[in-house]
């Protein structure tokens, strides 16, 4: 029989080499992690050094006298509503600005409102409307407060207004009477959309600015009931007793002696875009 003793797999040697390889890998990983942390610390020091250099340079420029023989200060610009200057420099410039404006407009430390009023008056008189708009829209909190909050108030007032009631009535009677279910469907389509979480949410033309909704059907009915259309009389079946009819007639009518003057008053008080025709003749 062939000798298979030397051909067996040496498990002990394999496990020993595997253990040594794993130990080396752990050491290499630790060494790499230490080098990575060291690199991060160096990069952080570089960033701090650059910020400190920029702040010192800016302070030097700010403290230098501004005349024709010296270099002017670095201009302040806003990037996405944030000053491009270092924090220390921008804070100092704000303080200097408030000091100068307070002296001009008679403000004090206890009452800075005259300074704010003076700056805003100067901005709205000397600044272009496009630039003012960019300033407001460049600051997210300011945009939310000024645009969204003001719009929400105006939206609530409009939805309760006479104009929205007339808009709702015009929608209900457009191309014939819609009916309850059709009106509710149209109202839903005009003001609601599907949300990512499921369900529906209001259509927004801007964050926090939803499109105005027409009246609910119940509120629409209340508005319709407020409209004075005169007296509408039901047909009395006693008047139909002499007529030869197979089935009773249900309906209503108006007294022309009351209705015609009301109709004439309506046409005379309405803004007429087209000439009225009276017995085939144009008025």
UniProtKB/TrEMBL annotation:
Protein name as annotated: Uncharacterized protein
């Amino acid at each position: 029989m062939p000798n298979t003793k030397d051909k067996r797999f040496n498990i002990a040697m394999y496990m020993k080499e595997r253990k040594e390889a794993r130990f080396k890998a752990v050491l290499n990983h630790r060494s790499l992690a230490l080098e990575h942390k060291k690199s991060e610390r160096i990069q952080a020091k570089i960033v701090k050094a650059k910020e400190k250099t920029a702040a010192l340079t800016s302070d030097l420029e700010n403290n230098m006298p501004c005349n024709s023989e010296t270099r002017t200060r670095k201009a302040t610009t806003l990037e996405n509503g944030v000053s491009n200057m270092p924090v220390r420099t921008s804070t100092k410039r704000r303080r200097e600005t408030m000091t100068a404006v307070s002296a001009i407009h008679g403000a004090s430390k206890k009452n800075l409102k005259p300074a704010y009023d003076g700056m805003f008056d100067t901005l709205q008189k000397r600044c272009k409307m496009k630039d003012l708009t960019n300033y407001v829209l460049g600051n997210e909190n300011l945009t939310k407060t000024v645009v969204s909050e003001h719009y929400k108030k105006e939206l609530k007032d409009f939805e309760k207004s006479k104009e929205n009631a007339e808009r709702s009535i015009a929608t209900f009677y457009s191309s014939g009477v819609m009916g309850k279910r059709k009106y509710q469907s149209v109202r839903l389509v005009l003001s609601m959309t599907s949300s990512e979480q499921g369900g529906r949410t209001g259509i927004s033309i801007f964050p926090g600015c939803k499109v105005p909704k027409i009246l609910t059907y119940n509120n629409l009915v209340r508005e319709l009931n407020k409209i004075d259309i005169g007296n509408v009389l039901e047909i009395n079946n006693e008047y139909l007793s002499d007529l030869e009819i197979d089935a009773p007639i249900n309906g209503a009518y108006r007294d022309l002696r009351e209705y015609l003057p009301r109709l004439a008053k309506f046409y005379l008080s309405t803004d007429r875009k087209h000439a009225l025709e009276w017995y085939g003749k144009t008025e």
